[in-house]
């Protein structure tokens, strides 16, 4: 019994050491993206295992002071989280450690459209966002304003609006995440069939509408609805009309309304108002199609649950103290309170869920 208690205490101490040092993981991920390591290893699909020295020769060819040992230390640590695969013969003292990309690592490789998850990594670790993290406890002590606001004096969206480079990185990050998600939606969801007029709330540059119209020619008119200053910069897309406005005031009428990653950064009262405006813009039988992270009812240690709960704390810290990731039941109740009698959730993606509210 004593041995079991000692073993349990040892495991607990080890676990708290791992948790205490876990900042090494995202910051090392940030480092390898900044150094362009994934593209250097990938080399157009070869993904041949190479050493840290060989990586540096590709990413910093004229930097003689670059340190391959320090890069190897970062690669080894991220290997333990499945970002890289390590190739090493421990029986050969002269064997160099070499690294290739795993499926996780491949998400950071720039594809033919210039997209990847790399900008998403960089976007999360900009200085203004990093300044907010030591203040997470303030979201508990004083939820009236976000840790980001306490650290920077402005809301995140207002701050991005004043910093073109941050806004550009945010848009690139969102494209890198949304394009593969939308491809999955267009394969696994048939809810756009029969829709002739579709509004994308918060549609930004209109990328999602372009993809939807490309797959569903029955959608004769797409309305890209966003803030006036956003749609003013949106490109011209055949079949798409750019409309400026405010979703808290009103939303253009349509057979269906689409929105992606909008509701999670607002409070319950604000979400209800947005959904009421959607309800008023739809005919009988019309639907609101919302794509959002949806929390499981039970907490566990699965990668999915952790990713969703971590994202919830990110929203609380950066965007809105009482904005949040919600459960399926919470979304059902919000929809009902806004007037939608019918609701279903479709788990097409591991992180984002398609929520359909029908009038």
Automatic annotation (TrEMBL):
GO biological process terms held by the UniProt record: methylation
Molecular functions (GO terms): O-methyltransferase activity; protein dimerization activity; S-adenosylmethionine-dependent methyltransferase activity
Superkingdom of the source species: Eukaryota
InterPro entries: COMT-like, COMT_C, COMT_dimerisation, SAM-dependent_MTases_sf, WH-like_DNA-bd_sf, WH_DNA-bd_sf
Signal peptide range in chain numbering: none
Keywords from the named record: Methyltransferase, S-adenosyl-L-methionine, Transferase
Keyword Transferase carried by entry: yes
Domain O-methyltransferase C-terminal per the UniProt entry, residue ranges: 136-340
O-methyltransferase dimerisation domain sequence ranges: 17-111
Keyword S-adenosyl-L-methionine attributed: yes
Protein name (record): Caffeic acid 3-O-methyltransferase
Organism of origin: Juglans regia
């Amino acid at each position: 019994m004593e041995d079991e208690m000692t073993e349990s205490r040892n495991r607990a101490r080890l676990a708290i050491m791992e948790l205490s040092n876990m900042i090494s993981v995202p910051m090392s991920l940030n480092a390898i993206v900044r150094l362009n390591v994934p593209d250097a290893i990938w080399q157009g699909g070869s993904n041949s295992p190479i050493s840290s020295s060989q990586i540096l020769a590709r990413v910093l060819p004229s930097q003689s002071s670059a340190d391959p040992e320090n890069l190897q230390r970062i690669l080894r640590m991220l290997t333990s989280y499945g970002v890289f695969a390590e190739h090493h013969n421990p029986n050969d003292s002269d064997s160099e450690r070499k690294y290739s990309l795993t499926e996780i690592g491949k998400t950071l490789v720039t594809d033919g459209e210039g997209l990847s998850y790399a900008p998403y990594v960089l976007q999360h670790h900009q200085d203004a966002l990093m300044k907010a993290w030591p203040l997470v406890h303030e979201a508990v002590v004083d939820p009236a304003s976000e840790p980001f606001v306490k650290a920077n004096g402005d809301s995140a969206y207002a701050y991005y609006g004043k910093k073109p480079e941050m806004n550009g990185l945010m848009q690139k990050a969102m494209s890198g995440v949304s394009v593969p998600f939308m491809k999955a939606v267009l394969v696994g969801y048939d809810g756009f069939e029969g829709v002739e007029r579709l509004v994308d709330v918060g549609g930004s540059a209109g990328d999602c509408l372009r993809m939807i119209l490309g797959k569903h020619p029955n959608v004769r008119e797409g309305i890209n609805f966003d803030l006036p200053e956003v749609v003013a910069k949106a490109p011209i897309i055949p079949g798409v009309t750019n409309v400026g406005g405010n979703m808290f005031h009103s939303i253009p009428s349509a057979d269906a309304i689409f929105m992606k990653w909008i509701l999670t950064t607002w409070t319950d009262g604000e979400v209800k108002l947005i959904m009421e405006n959607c309800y008023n813009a739809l005919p009988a039988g019309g639907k609101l199609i919302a794509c959002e992270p949806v929390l499981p009812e039970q907490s566990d240690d699965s990668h999915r649950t952790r990713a969703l709960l971590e994202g919830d704390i990110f929203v609380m810290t950066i965007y809105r103290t009482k904005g949040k990731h919600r459960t399926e039941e919470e979304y059902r109740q919000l929809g009902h309170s806004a007037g939608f009698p019918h609701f279903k959730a479709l788990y097409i993606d591991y992180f984002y869920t398609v929520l359909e509210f029908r009038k």
